[in-house]
């Protein structure tokens, strides 16, 4: 478990079972990036709480770009929407898409999603919307860090990488 995670007192409540990916996002300082590692946690016996899911928020200047990318491109479904918030879901994954030009200008995330059948999800996305496959990672490839992966990219540079252990 990374040292910074100890600040949240997670080691006393949970144990790490698997690292499932990470999110990279630009924050207030444009020259620096923050990396948030995503872990799957198993609640220790007698723990008062459990972390269940991370819900990434992705900002768009034009929400239709995000909806097309997630719904038409990757097969998510629209679960809720109001004037500026759109919640899309697929299996156990949820994204909050927010229509906000102000935040979209400084926050273009890279998000990893772990899967147990990368070939099937790749084929589905390739058949559904081949134009969203990332030009630098448009086929499933084996990486030296022990993963098979491919990536998608929307016109605003939101990048979703799908990964599976080799």
Structural features, described:
The longest helix is centred in the middle third of the chain and has 11 residues, at 63-73. The chain has helices spanning 10-13, 63-73, 101-104, 118-128; strands spanning 14-26, 33-43, 57-60, 77-81, 85-90, 93-99, 110-114, 141-142, 147-153, 159-165. It has a six-stranded mixed sheet with strand order 2-1-7-10-9-8. It has four helices and ten strands. It folds into two domains: 1-52, no CATH class; 55-166, 2,3-Dihydroxybiphenyl 1,2-Dioxygenase, domain 1, CATH 3.10.180.10. The protein is 18% helix and 40% strand. It is α+β, with helices and mostly antiparallel strands and 166 residues long.
How is this structure best summarized?
The protein is 18% helix and 40% strand. It is α+β, with helices and mostly antiparallel strands and 166 residues long.
Uncertain ranges: 1-43
The major β-sheet equals: 6 strands, mixed
Q: Could you tell me the CATH topology label of the largest domain.
A: 2,3-Dihydroxybiphenyl 1,2-Dioxygenase, domain 1
CATH homologous superfamily grouping of the largest domain: 2,3-Dihydroxybiphenyl 1,2-Dioxygenase, domain 1
Structural class: alpha+beta
The level 1 CATH classification of the largest domain is Alpha Beta
Counted up, domains total 2
Write the layout of secondary structure elements.
Elements: H1 10-13, E1 14-26, E2 33-43, E3 57-60, H2 63-73, E4 77-81, E5 85-90, E6 93-99, H3 101-104, E7 110-114, H4 118-128, E8 141-142, E9 147-153, E10 159-165
Parallel strand pairs: 3-6, 7-10
Antiparallel strand pairs: 1-2, 1-7, 4-5, 5-6, 8-9, 9-10
């Amino acid at each position: 478990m990374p040292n910074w995670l100890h600040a949240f007192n997670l080691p006393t409540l949970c144990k790490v079972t698997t690292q499932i990916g990470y999110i990279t996002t630009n924050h207030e300082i444009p020259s620096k990036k923050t990396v948030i590692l995503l872990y799957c946690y198993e609640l220790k016996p007698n723990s008062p709480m459990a972390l269940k899911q991370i819900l990434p928020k992705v900002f768009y200047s034009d929400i239709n770009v995000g909806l097309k990318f997630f719904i038409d491109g990757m097969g998510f479904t629209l679960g809720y929407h109001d004037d500026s918030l759109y919640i899309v879901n697929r299996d156990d994954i949820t994204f909050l898409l927010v229509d906000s030009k102000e935040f979209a200008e400084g926050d273009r995330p890279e998000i990893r999603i772990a899967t147990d059948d990368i070939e099937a999800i790749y084929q589905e996305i390739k058949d559904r919307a081949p134009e969203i496959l990332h030009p630098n990672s448009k086929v499933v490839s084996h990486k030296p860090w022990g993963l098979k992966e491919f990536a998608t990219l929307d016109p605003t540079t939101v990048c979703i990488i799908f990964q599976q252990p080799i």
